[in-house]
């Protein structure tokens, strides 16, 4: 091992449960990058924080399934919680599967979730944003998460799928529970709550699919039910898992991009002014805001065989965590202004916020569309847009973003 590996006898450099981390994780990530590109935590997992290694890891095709692993702290936790399957890695969604299943699930879903079907949504997305902005204009002072950042992606994915009128409040609670499976979890009670939410949400979606079989329409659910690729179709359980993934990923991530992006602009008034002057920069600004505050901060992989990174041999059965958020601020890659927002940064699109390699985000075009329209229309519509109180973060380590963003506007 070289001096770049911090071993278990050394100081703990990564502590996502430390006070303040979920408000601002970037100082810890900076320290980690300074310590070196590969860090082994005393608990045994590995963490990558620099752009080059994170990009390579995502493209490496390492496993995402942990069912083949031997004893692990997560397994111990599951036993204490009385559940035998990890609600995440036990799932049948493409996010948690390796080839050949990943390849077939992804091709079946990609067949109906196409760039063309997403581009066609622009008028509907614009209308939804404008309706939200009307309500905001009338109120004058609002929580932007509640009035725009959450309802927009929630409405878009619900309409795309063709969800029937269901209890949206309960569904929102369940998805909020379920996304905790993507967070580092360190207590059995949380794990049990996640597993219960997973079971309930899957049951609701199974009912929705049964209803949709008798109520076909021009929507994604109908298309997914009918999807066939080279004679292959989704099994009932696979269908439920892909729909849960699209539904949850469809809004629990984009909310962070819209709210985090607006907050970043509010904190850098010259950049907000630049966007106001040059609304044609809304697409470029979306890339820069994705880079600046990664809506999904971490991605994890599992080694089933020895894996070498910069001469460090990571043994089989290890968790390797890639900090997308840290890679997006790596000064070695982005230069000395990595911690600043520059909406006209020429290479901002090289961020890793949508992951990379075989699991690269399937919804990237949809997220980009929603954010670009939201940022662009906000500055076009309002002469002033200002923070109007304390920002509260959502307390998450991975799907991190503002939980409350009070703003005031004048038209
Ligand atoms: C995968 C980020 C929005 C659907 C991913 C991954 C990331 C990501 C990082 C890869 C995870 C990994 O490799 O471990 C984001 C961000 C979004 C966003 C930052 C918004 C700003 C969406 C939307 C949808 C979506 C709107 C769909 C409606 C998916 C799916 C996968 C995925 C289906 C799994 C792909 C696979 O495993 O092959 N996303 N996502 N995402 N995302 Fe997104």
From TrEMBL:
Pfam family name, one: p450
Pathway info: Antibiotic biosynthesis; vancomycin biosynthesis
Sorted UniProt keywords: Heme, Iron, Metal-binding, Monooxygenase, Oxidoreductase
Family named by the database record: Belongs to the cytochrome P450 family.
Identification of the protein by name: Cytochrome P450
Origin species: Amycolatopsis marina
Function of the molecule: Involved in the coupling of aromatic side chains of the heptapeptide of vancomycin.
Residues of the signal peptide: none
Record GO terms (molecular function): heme binding; iron ion binding; monooxygenase activity; oxidoreductase activity, acting on paired donors, with incorporation or reduction of molecular oxygen
UniProt cross-references to InterPro entries, sorted A to Z: Cyt_P450, Cyt_P450_B, Cyt_P450_CS, Cyt_P450_sf
CDD domains named among the record's database cross-references: CYP164-like
Domain of life: Bacteria
């Amino acid at each position: 091992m070289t001096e770049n590996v911090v071993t278990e006898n050394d100081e703990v450099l990564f502590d996502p449960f430390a006070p303040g981390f979920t408000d601002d994780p970037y100082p810890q990530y900076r320290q980690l990058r300074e310590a070196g590109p590969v860090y082994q935590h005393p608990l045994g997992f590995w963490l990558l924080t620099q752009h080059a290694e994170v990009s390579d890891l995502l493209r490496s095709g390492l496993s995402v399934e942990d069912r083949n692993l031997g004893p692990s702290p997560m397994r111990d936790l599951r036993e204490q919680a009385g559940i035998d399957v990890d609600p995440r890695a036990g799932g049948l969604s493409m996010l948690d599967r390796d080839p050949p299943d990943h390849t077939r699930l992804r091709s079946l879903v990609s067949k109906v979730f196409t760039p063309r079907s997403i581009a066609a949504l622009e008028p509907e997305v614009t209308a939804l944003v404008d309706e939200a902005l009307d309500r905001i204009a009338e109120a004058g002072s609002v929580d932007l998460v509640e009035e725009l950042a959450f309802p927009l992606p929630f409405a878009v994915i619900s309409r795309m799928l063709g969800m029937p009128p269901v209890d949206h409040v309960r569904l929102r609670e369940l998805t909020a529970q379920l996304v905790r499976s993507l967070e580092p979890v360190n207590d059995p009670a949380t794990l049990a709550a996640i597993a219960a939410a997973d079971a309930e949400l899957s049951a609701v979606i199974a009912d929705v699919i049964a209803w949709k079989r008798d109520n076909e329409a021009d929507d994604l659910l109908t298309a997914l039910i009918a999807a066939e690729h080279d004679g292959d179709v989704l099994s009932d359980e696979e269908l439920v898992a892909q729909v849960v993934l699209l539904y949850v990923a469809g809004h629990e991530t984009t909310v962070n991009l819209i709210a985090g992006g607006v907050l970043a602009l509010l904190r850098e008034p010259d950049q907000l002014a630049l966007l106001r002057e040059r609304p044609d920069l809304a697409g470029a600004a979306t890339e820069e805001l994705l880079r600046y505050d990664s809506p999904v901060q971490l991605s994890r992989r599992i080694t089933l065989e020895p894996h070498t990174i910069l001469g460090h041999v990571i043994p089989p059965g290890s968790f390797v965590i890639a900090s997308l958020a840290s890679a997006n601020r790596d000064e070695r890659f982005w230069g000395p202004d990595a911690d600043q927002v520059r909406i006209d940064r020429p290479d901002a699109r090289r961020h890793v916020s949508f992951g990379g390699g075989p699991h690269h985000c399937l919804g990237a075009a949809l997220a980009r569309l929603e954010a670009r329209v939201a940022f662009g229309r906000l500055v076009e519509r309002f002469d002033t847009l200002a923070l109007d109180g304390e920002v509260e973060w959502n307390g998450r380590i991975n799907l991190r973003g503002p939980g409350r963003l009070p703003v005031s506007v004048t038209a």
